[in-house]
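Troubleshooting log. The previous structure file for this entry was overwritten by mistake, so regenerating from the original sequence record. Sequence copied from the archived sheet and checked twice against the printout by T.R.
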Amino acid sequence: LDGTDLSQYCDKKARLAPQDILEIVAQIAGALEYAHLNGVVHRDIKPANIMLGKTGQVKVADFGVARVMSSSRTETGVVLGTPSYMSPEQVAGKKVDGRSDLFSLGVVLYELLSGEKPFVADSLAALMYNISNAKYPDLKDVCPGLPQGFYPIVDKLLSKALSRRYKSADLLQRDLFDLLETLEGR
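Regenerated output below.
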């Protein structure tokens, strides 16, 4: 692929403009919607697996741990995915669906906006506890100057409860496009 992954834009000194982040995350949501409609859960959404082409086109890469939704339960004792980006249900070894990818995308969005991961800890066990139980630092405190529309989107994506998250990547993409239109004054 001709481009670079998103990890370089997760540094506080190299963050993208909010409008660019919206466009990128909307494209990722579109790719996830396609995968989910075809019964595939990625299970390892993270900046290093999202490629930004030189023309601005986004590609979601590395479906190496992806699973068909009908058999997406994690094997006992096996951790699949990158811990910092795992959803609470992945941490617990429960069956995952597209909403798990959306949680992971929420972590990526938080990191792109703030330059920080929402869940950190000194050990893997503590990290997994934080993902499952702790509240992340409020994005309003970490990035107070963002357009207001970002905060409820991030909060919904990072909800611990599946029922409070976006039901589909398409619904997320619609909210992202609405916010983008608002920012562009359309």
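The first helix runs from residue 18 to 37. Archived copy saved in two places this time.
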